[in-house]
Amino acid sequence: MPEGKPNSAGPIRVALLGCGTVGTEVVRLLTDQAADLTARIGAPVVLTGIAVRKPNKHREVPAELLTTDAAALVASDVDLVVEVIGGIEPARTLLLEALRSGKSVVTANKALLAEHSAELFEAADASGADLYFEAAVAGAIPLLRPLRESLAGDRITRVMGIVNGTTNFILSGMDATGASYSETLEEASRLGYAEADPTADVDGFDAASKAAILASLAFHTRVTASDVHREGISAVSASDIAAAKGLGRTVKLLAICERVTETAEDGTTKESVAARVHPAMIPRSHPLAGVNGAFNAVFVEADAAGEMMFYGQGAGGAPTASAVLGDLVAVARNRVHGGRGPRESAYAGLPVRSIGQTPTRYHISLDVADRAGVLAQVAAVFAEHDVSIAAVRQEGRVDDASLVIVTHAASDAALRSTVDKVGGLPVVRDVVSVMRVEGEEQ
Ligand SMILES: NC(=O)C1=CN([C@@H]2O[C@H](COP(=O)(O)OP(=O)(O)OC[C@H]3O[C@@H](n4cnc5c(N)ncnc54)[C@H](O)[C@@H]3O)[C@@H](O)[C@H]2O)C=CC1
Ligand SMILES: N[C@@H](CC=O)C(=O)O
Ligand code: NA
């Protein structure tokens, strides 16, 4: 259907690709809320087929709609394709096919969007179809629509928060009850929070994809997952959590997307963007410290609006399906009444900086010999590498002591070589914990 042309012909015909945790809930909401959806859209929604891989698996969905031929379903007479399969292929090929033939797409697939949004948007533009993906970042929380639409008149400078429910569930469990990493991960999978391969969660790939999507929207620049510095939580130990607690902090996996403005000597300014995902210690008084379980929370800072916080359920079948349905209604309304949602906006084309160019603060906890001069030796190594110390705490025990150091902002490379050298000092028994620090005054 050409762009903007209203569909007064009848119902909105929808194909659903995938029927796992999210897909099942999408079908439930479409069924339970059919009358309200019809009233809100101005036309009934008809689910014409559900593409699955295992048709004999028990599901609470109409069996007669199931098909294993996703390509044929996409090629059939539908207005809208909802994709909740996940992963790159076959989702990419199916959605390109749908968009090229003028069918609008709603997807929750952050992995795909963080790698292939350019070709997906190109295909959507060529046919005048819509591409909506609110569920792809922070589950139920309306975040992408505010960035794409509500804040389109402002200048966003920073987007920072917790965007992965599984890792937040694990870290808050470790912090609150000392629960083990593996037990909590199993529970997160059972509750439908984790990705099909939970490595995507714990190694930070999922959060990095989300950071790429957020940075692209916030800074009108194409940022892909490979542009995002990524560290997961698999190296976060019970000692890190204990060290954080001892300092009135907690550990969270953060996604941080920043607009960086540098002023040259001649007064000219140069802008770039930086995006990173890593565990960080934050003060327990910080609003993100109280975000527990599978909840997500994201701060957005913009020049005119100031600071905003978006909070809610970031994972799980029903919360994610809520976001999918919201997009489905928006796209269906566009079909019924004419018009089209926003296109990709990558006009700014800002360069993306590497983490090496983005200084951060660090917490380092060392087991050291309890003897005079240890602090001086350790401090000398920091000075030698130009890593400035902001605070030091030393606690003596009978024959050894712990030394906790918090640095001022330092580059990743400088910090790594400092820690390597400090770890080799004869007076240092063990480097107990090294972690970035966020959310405090510099
Ligand atoms: N579970 C959650 O909390 C959230 C998930 N998402 C995203 O939503 C998407 C779906 O996630 P879940 O429902 O949790 O995953 P899931 O693994 O529970 O469901 C995916 C389903 O797709 C099926 N599938 C795989 N290949 C297929 C194919 N070729 N044709 C038809 N079906 C196929 C699988 O058998 C599975 O049943 C993913 O992109 C995920 O990243 C986004 C936000 C939250
Ligand atoms: N696996 C993801 C699901 C939602 O995006 C998460 O844990 O956040
Ligand atoms: Na969302």
UniProtKB/TrEMBL annotation:
GO biological process terms, semicolon-separated: methionine biosynthetic process; threonine biosynthetic process
Pathway: Amino-acid biosynthesis; L-methionine biosynthesis via de novo pathway; L-homoserine from L-aspartate: step 3/3; Amino-acid biosynthesis; L-threonine biosynthesis; L-threonine from L-aspartate: step 3/5
GO MF assignments: homoserine dehydrogenase activity; metal ion binding; NADP binding
Residues where NADP(+) binds: L17, G18, C19, G20, T21, V22, G23, T24
Family matches, as CDD domains: ACT_HSDH-Hom
InterPro entries documented for this protein: ACT-like_dom_sf, ACT_dom, Asp/hSer_DH_NAD-bd, HDH, HDH_cat, HDH_CS, NAD(P)-bd_dom_sf
Pfam families: ACT, Homoserine_dh, NAD_binding_3
Entry annotation: catalytic residues: K210
Keyword line: Amino-acid biosynthesis, Metal-binding, Methionine biosynthesis, NAD, NADP, Oxidoreductase, Sodium, Threonine biosynthesis
Binding site for L-homoserine: E195
Positions of NADPH binding: K110
Enzyme Commission code(s) on record: 1.1.1.3
EC supergroup of this enzyme: oxidoreductase
Described function: Catalyzes the conversion of L-aspartate-beta-semialdehyde (L-Asa) to L-homoserine (L-Hse), the third step in the biosynthesis of threonine and methionine from aspartate.
Family to which the UniProt record says this protein belongs: Belongs to the homoserine dehydrogenase family.
Protein name: Homoserine dehydrogenase
